[in-house]
Amino acid sequence: MDKPERVAANLARNLTSLRHSRHLTQEALAKAAGLPRSTIANLESGDGNPSLAVLVKVAAKLGVPIDELLAPARAKVRRWTASELRSQAQGRGVTLKPLVPEPVPEEMLVRMDFLPGAVMAGTPHLPGTREYFSCLEGGVTIFVAGERYELTAGDVLAFPGNVAHSYRNNFQAPAMGISVVILAKAGV
Question: pTM of the predicted model, to two decimals?
């Protein structure tokens, strides 16, 4: 078992690293977790003695298990097996699977698999959101604000994510693409 001061140092290093990798300020993380900014500052200085409730809130907002906050540096690698990654059926004949199994603030990264004849309506996002669709295999037709765009393997389409859009595989073969959505910040 590590000494308490070693665990506090691990927490300080891991919290700072995770917060920076997610482009969050201490204030933004504190607000999201419902904590005072001074609590985050104390934890990052190695001086904090957090309750379990504080650790749960911070870990949840960073999208990591508590043990990742407290672990020594060697424990930063995490592997997910294919069976652990959730997939979701959407529309008719479309399966969505996250590319990154941990939350990435202000972004959505999704693999989209289309059966032949698959159709899916896109979800409109906040104004200022930008979506990028990369067709990796087969062909996908994307309708954006009534305009039709035919994509084949290697093509990329960028469009405002707040306008009506939909996806369709008009071919007799499966298709696959990657959707990257850069979310607009609420209230901006």
Answer: 0.61
